[in-house]
Amino acid sequence: MASELLRKEETLTMRRQLIGQSCRLFYSDDPVKIVRARGQYIFDENDKRYLDCISNVHHVGHCHPSVTKAATDQMDLLNTNTRFLHDNLVLYADRLAATLPERLSVFYFVNSGSEANDLALRLAQQYTQHEDVIVLDHAYHGHLMSLIDISPYKFRKLNGQKEWVHVAPLPDTYRGIYKEDEPNPGQSYADTVKDLIEESPKVCIIHTNTLGTQTIHPDIHKSLFLTRVTY
C-alpha cells in the first residue's frame, strides 16, 4: 500500500472504476473518506472525528488494543485452519460450551454470519429431510444464494418468495400487527409462527434473529421456543 494517501477525489474515481456498483457506498454524493478509527469514532483524511453509528457491529469499538494485540500475537505464531490439531481450537470450544446448556456442546467454526446461517440451514435440511423454512418479515440472513432465498429484505427486490419459504410477521410492538397495548403481544406473534408450522408440515427450521443490531420483543422467543411449536 502507498504510504501517502490519495486525494479524496482520486479515491472516489478509482472506486467507481474498480469496485462493483452493488457494493454500496455511504453518502455516495459526497462520501466521507475514512483513514483510521478508534473506539466509537472514525476519522477522515482531515482528522475530523465522527461518531460511528452505521458500521457493522463493533461490540468493543474499533481497534481495541486488547483485540488487536491478541490477533497480532496469534498471527505471529500460527494462522491455520481446523484441519490441523492444535490447542486453541479445542480450548475455545470448551470455553463456549461452558456458557451453554449441556446439549449444545459441539461446534463448527466459520468465518462469517453468512457461513453460519448457511450451515445452520444445511444441517436442518439434512437432519429433517425437509426443505421449508420460516423466517421473520424484513429479515436479512446473508449474501449467499441460499440465504438470499430466505431473506425477505432481499428476495422481494429480486425473484420473489420461494414456495418453501414462509414469512411470519416481525414482532414489532410499535409498527407491527400486535402493539404494545395488546394483552400478550409476544405470545400473539409466537402464535403466528405456530400457525405457519401447522400449515406447512415440512418446516425444517425457524430462522429468526435472536441477537443483533435490532431489538426483539422480550417475550417472543420465550413464547416461541419454550412451548411446543414443532412436530
From TrEMBL:
Belongs to the class-III pyridoxal-phosphate-dependent aminotransferase family. Its cofactor is pyridoxal 5'-phosphate. The keyword Lyase does not apply. Keywords: Pyridoxal phosphate. GO terms for cellular component: mitochondrion. PANTHER family: 5-PHOSPHOHYDROXY-L-LYSINE PHOSPHO-LYASE (PTHR45688:SF6), PTHR45688. GO terms for molecular function: pyridoxal phosphate binding; transaminase activity. The keyword Glycoprotein does not apply. It holds the Pfam family Aminotran_3. This is 5-phosphohydroxy-L-lysine phospho-lyase.
